[in-house]
Design a protein that fits this description.
Elements: E1 5-9, H1 10-24, E2 30-34, H2 42-50, E3 55-58, H3 61-69, E4 76-78, H4 87-93, E5 96-99, H5 102-114, E6 119-125, H6 139-147, E7 152-159, H7 171-188, E8 194-196, H8 203-206, E9 217-220, H9 222-226, E10 244-257, H10 260-265, H11 267-270, E11 280-286, E12 298-299, E13 304-309, E14 314-318, E15 328-333, H12 335-343, E16 348-352
Parallel strand pairs: 1-16, 2-3, 2-9, 3-4, 4-5, 5-6, 6-7, 7-8
Antiparallel strand pairs: 1-10, 10-11, 10-15, 11-14, 12-15, 13-14
This protein binds pyridoxal-5'-phosphate.
Length: 373
């Protein structure tokens, strides 16, 4: 098999989704599987759906188109505000999108009318992360505007926490989001079906025993894929953290002294390297580099420590276990390393599954009111 190679265990993705869906269901919260870290890989998306996700979400229209071409028909939410230059593609591939700009919503509405359809709008509210979001005091105005615009349907509101700047959300933050849902309804009528409470960063809150309020959806990527809490990096109880592993091949192993360059330039100094107590280490090179992944986001086996990486080389150090040339080292990945490895053309993606691939659940996308996202 070729290396570097990302080995993807679809059963673990499916099981992680199932565990989260089953824990959130009693709280009245559905799971939208977020596929952006895996570039909308259709088989991984299908594993999320067969694990019980009620829909999918991605930040890039090309990823959504890839899933559609693979026959995935469930509701898909565009979670990045659509580009004006892509509104036609967003309307034709996604049931709904997250939005913060009235001008873009107007353009989506026009595209939907041209395509003879309606496009769902989730209004994202700024709740402290300072990435995307409408300021809470402006929410009802924009919501009213959406309800009066043919071609778009106000499907709900959402918020994002702990992605750019903010901390994990508190119970107060989430109660404030519920109040905003009530306030929007009071102004616009009973339109707020979906209250999408955030990402994997909100799981700690969502799985707690306090009231879930109006929040009835989470958009989960990292927790499903890597089994970790993005805020702390700590594994979430009961989830697989090794659904993705990266295999890299050893191409050099040598015992190198820090004095090696001096030995070459000055024979007199070479004697120094024979003095006991000098720091001799076994260094190896793995044939993988910054073009393939975020090297700083890799997790190494216990006996192997990361020294550094360049575009095509990754240098590690070992003690008492020199790595054999041609052997493979198994690496685990954080979110950033996964994101880069999935997008890298020279990293082979190898899928395994403990059961034959299930088709994506075919929630209809023809109806005017598709299933809850
Ligand atoms: C990426 C993203 C998510 C998913 O985040 P995870 O930490 O992977 O769960 C959810 N919502 C929005 C708007 C996002 O951009």
């Amino acid at each position: 098999m070729t290396a570097p190679r990302l080995e993807i265990d679809l059963s673990k993705v499916r099981q992680n989704t199932r565990v989260l869906v089953d824990r959130l269901d009693p709280r009245g919260i559905t799971v939208t599987g977020v596929t952006k870290a895996v570039c909308g890989h259709p088989d991984i998306a299908k594993a999320m759906l067969s694990g019980g996700a009620t829909g999918l979400a991605d930040a890039r229209v090309a990823n959504v188109e890839r899933m559609r071409q693979a026959g995935i028909t469930c509701p898909v939410l565009m979670i990045r505000t659509p580009m004006l230059s892509q509104v036609e593609r967003v309307v034709s591939s996604c049931e709904a999108s997250c939005n913060t700009e009235a001008g873009i919503i107007a353009s989506l509405a026009a595209a939907a009318l041209r395509q003879g359809t309606n496009h769902g709008i989730i209004l994202m509210v700024e709740m402290g992360d300072l990435r995307e979001g409408i300021m809470p005091e402006d929410l009802t105005d924009i919501a009213l505007q959406v309800t009066r615009t043919p071609g778009v349907l106000l499907r709900g509101i959402g918020a994002n926490f702990a992605c750019l700047a903010g901390p994990a959300p508190t119970a107060e933050d989430m109660a404030a989001l519920s109040s905003l849902a009530d306030a929007t309804e009071a102004e616009c009528g009973p339109f707020v079906d979906v209250v999408s409470g955030g990402s994997s960063a909100n799981l700690r809150w969502a799985l707690d025993t306090g009231p879930a309020g109006r929040v009835n959806n989470l958009r989960l990527g990292e927790a499903i894929l890597l089994g970790t809490d993005p805020v702390s990096g700590i594994p979430i109880n009961g989830l697989h953290t090794d659904a993705f592993v990266l295999q890299a091949e050893v191409i050099e192993t040598k015992t190198k002294s820090k004095l090696a360059p001096l030995k070459l330039s000055d024979p007199a100094l070479s004697a120094l390297s024979l003095v006991p107590g000098n720091h001799w280490k076994t260094r190896s090179i793995l044939a993988i580099g910054l073009q393939d992944t975020d090297a700083a986001g890799l997790i190494f086996p216990a006996a192997v420590s990361y020294i550094g990486a360049t575009s095509d080389h990754l240098v590690v150090e070992t003690t008492n276990c020199p790595l054999r040339i041609g052997s493979e080292i198994t690496l685990r990945l954080n979110y950033s390393a996964l994101l880069h490895a999935m997008a890298a053309p020279d990293v082979e993606k190898v899928l395994c599954d403990d059961r034959p691939s299930a088709d994506g659940r075919s929630a209809s996308r023809n109806g005017r009111h598709p299933a809850l996202l």
